[in-house]
Amino acid sequence: MQTKITVRPYQEVDAPALAAIYYNTIHQVNSRDYSSEQINAWAPELSLQAERWKPKWKSIIPLVAICDEKAVGFAEFEPTGHIDCFYVHHSYQGQGAGKALMFEIEDKAKQEQIPRLYAEVSITAKPFFEKCGFVVVKQQQVLIRGYELTNYRMEKRLIYDQVIIHELKDEKIPDIVKAFKESNWTLKSSLLFKQYLQEQQQQKRLIWLAYYGDYFAGYITLKWQSNYPFFQENKIPEIMDLNVLPKFRQLGIGSLLLNKAEEKSIIKSSYVGIGVGLYADYGAAQQLYIKRGYIPDGRGTTFNYKATLPGESYPVDDDLILWLTKKLR
Prior knowledge:
Layout: E1 6-9, H1 15-28, H2 36-42, H3 50-59, E2 63-67, E3 70-77, E4 82-88, H4 97-111, E5 116-122, H5 126-131, E6 135-144, E7 147-157, E8 163-167, H6 173-182, H7 190-201, E9 205-212, E10 215-223, H8 229-233, E11 238-244, H9 253-265, E12 271-277, H10 283-291, E13 295-303, E14 306-307, E15 320-327
Parallel strand pairs: 4-5, 11-12
Antiparallel strand pairs: 1-2, 2-3, 3-4, 5-7, 6-7, 8-9, 9-10, 10-11, 12-15, 13-14, 13-15
Helix pairs in contact: 1-3
């Protein structure tokens, strides 16, 4: 007789059962592939305390597999396509609970236009993820409470169309604003893009849009005359406002947009410049720019385009900028 598995969103009353599934799965199933020290570091007894999980599960609402009117598995699925916890009760493995959870995740991802799924997968779970179409990106060692554990970064592409780059046009603006709004990015208004379009028509700025298949994924602008005095004086064009929607990140879209801006910059200048913020939200951008050959211009930071001074205080926000340049030829 086939076991009937259904999947529904997490409810707060599920917390004790899910905490127990997490703990017992690791101790009774993953223990085949990891030492007792690694297992205890990964799932200590305190992980059985449901109250510790509730704040996370209030934010990331897990999907819960139900069989015989009880929770037998759960998965945490984030808007970026990241699958965090994915566990099935040891007594219900091989009965379809994992497949049901993964089916629900993929269906949700397609509805929300998420182009890929990715996860950090244990040695034990790797065969299951491979059967679901995931591929290994890299093997890695992670440190948990002082112990190193081997796992695999795996991903599955759901949309295989190539990235297409367009120039900004008026009819694209509603789609752009809607996409940012759905990503809780409310500052990207239609007024901003209409201003960009006007500047493009005046040949003051160029704007390119990236589409992943049929879906708007991000954009970049290139301003011929920067507001930053050093770039202005040396006629260095400035790449500004590079944005890739969270669910389309780590697909190379940012690099493709930068390629486009750099290719156009070389027509007028041997150098191109870019400014980057200093707080953690800019971390990925900082790494990307350094990898692509951008280096600090040697003039320190600015706040509202004015040089910062020793002993003065400045808010760490989007206006506190480190300026970088790249030699193009």
